[in-house]
Every structure is written in C-alpha cells, then in structure tokens.
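User: Quick sanity check before I run a bigger batch. Here is a single chain. Can you write out its predicted 3D structure?
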Amino acid sequence: MRLLYPILPGLLSTILLAACGKTDDATASAGDTESGSSTGTTGDQPTTDPGVSDSEPQNCTPGQSVACACKDGSDGAQVCAVDGKSFGVCECEGGGSNSVSDSVDPTSATTEVDATTTAVDMTTTGVDTTTGVDMTTTDGTTGPDTTTGANVCEDPGEEPNETEDDAVDLGDQTCQAEDSTLMGVLDGVDDVDWFVYRGIDGMGCGFENPFVSHTLMASDTVRLCVFAECDQGEPQFLCPDMAPGEDSPDGRPGCCSDGDLTFQFNCMGSQNETADFYVRLDQAPENACVDYSVTYGFGPLN
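Assistant: Done. Predicted structure follows.
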C-alpha cells in the first residue's frame, strides 16, 4: 500500500524557483559565449586583409588593363600591379615594350592614351602686324613683298661712284667720234653719281676751240654739273645762261644746270685743249627713283 505524502505549498515554491534559477544561469552563460564577452572569438573577427595597409592607398585596381601608346604610334596595353600602386610596362603588338608608357601617371591610368600623332599646321601666315604687309611665301618661309609693284632703284652702272675720286671712267672722246651716252639711276635726294671722260684735241677738232656738249634726259628733275681739268694750262669757258658756275669738291671749275650744258672750251696758256671732264648727277627728289641719261660730245659744234 502506497503512502502519499502531501507537499506543502511553501516547499513547492522553493523547488520551482530553484529550477528556474538554473535555467537562467545556463541561458546567460550561453549568451555570454555568443556575444564574445567571454572567451569567444567569432564576434569581433576583423574582415580586412592583414596584408594590405590602410596607410598606402591603391592608385589602380590590381589586374586592371588600360590602353597605352607604343613607339610606332599603335595602341598597346599595360596591367595594374598586384599591390595596386602602379602599372606595368606598355606591351605592344609583336612583343617588346614601350618605355614611354612607364611615364604615364598611374592616377590617371583609367584615361585612354591617344597615340594618334596630331599634325601641326606649319603654314606661316606671315602677316606683319605692324605694316599689314603679307609676307607669306609658298614654302612657308617669309620674305619681302614682291607683289606691290614698288620701284626698286637698281643702278645699271658701276658702283660706288658717289665721290669725285670714285668717278666711273668712260674713256676717251675724240673730235672725230660720234657722241657717247652715259646712263644711271639716282635713288633719292642723297644719291650722287660721278663720271669722267677725256676730251682729246686733234686735227679733227678744227681751228677753233672745241665745244663740250651735254644733253640731259631724266624721268624726274635732277641736276647736271660738268667740271674741267686741262692737261696743260687753265680751263677757260663761259657757263650757259641760267647755269651758275661752281667748283667741284676737289676744286675743278665747272657749271651746273637742271637741263643741258654746252659751252666752248679753252685751255688758257696752251695750244692743246685736251682735258678731263667730270660729270656729276645729283639732287633727285626725296624718295624718288630717277632714271637718267646724258649724251656728251667733244669737238666742233654740230
């Protein structure tokens, strides 16, 4: 026969509280383990690769390939290194590499390098901004403007002949010879041209003193002067009307005119009228280019 003992109410409460307390402790212990507050390691495990330092930022994505320029103008490719700090050499078709590509800034490696050579326009416009003169030539260089048609003073005679000592020697002029002609160009008011010829006295000159004649032709106004020096004796002559007498820089007597000059000539104190005649052209207008000719003769008056 079984005996049933009654359970007191107070004792039942104690048993229930004890059972609940053990359950809470087990739950707390497990919770501590899951949260990592005890000896667990799964809660605070780092996710960053320990081999990469945050203090050294990457300049490109490892394994990334970008275009680069080859020496022959074609496109190549270069790959970002494993550490992401720089790109490798530029690999070109047919093997080899292009060291020029190594100088590409890795921070701008995502920008494709244009290997096409830009043609530079080498055409020279040649416009002088100070004068407005077009200086362009067909070969791209510059040169003087030859299209304006401006006069260029080019003396067909011997130069220099700006002084009496540098006078162009025209040779002998005899009484039997036909008249001769000298020609030249005066370049403005400061230009001076000198010539000299020798008048030879002889049987063809007759019994009278010979005449010295000079006929001037010019494209603009110029002055004509003739100075004389005898082989023997002193020059003697009368200047034509409106042609004042004037001595040369070396002291030879003469006449000057803006037209023709003709006078009878004598070497005083001698029967021989042979003499040297110096012809000077000057006083052209300022900045003018004047062509001239002088026809001269020595002998009887025609």
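DSSP finds one helix and 16 strands in the chain.

User: Great, the batch can go ahead then.
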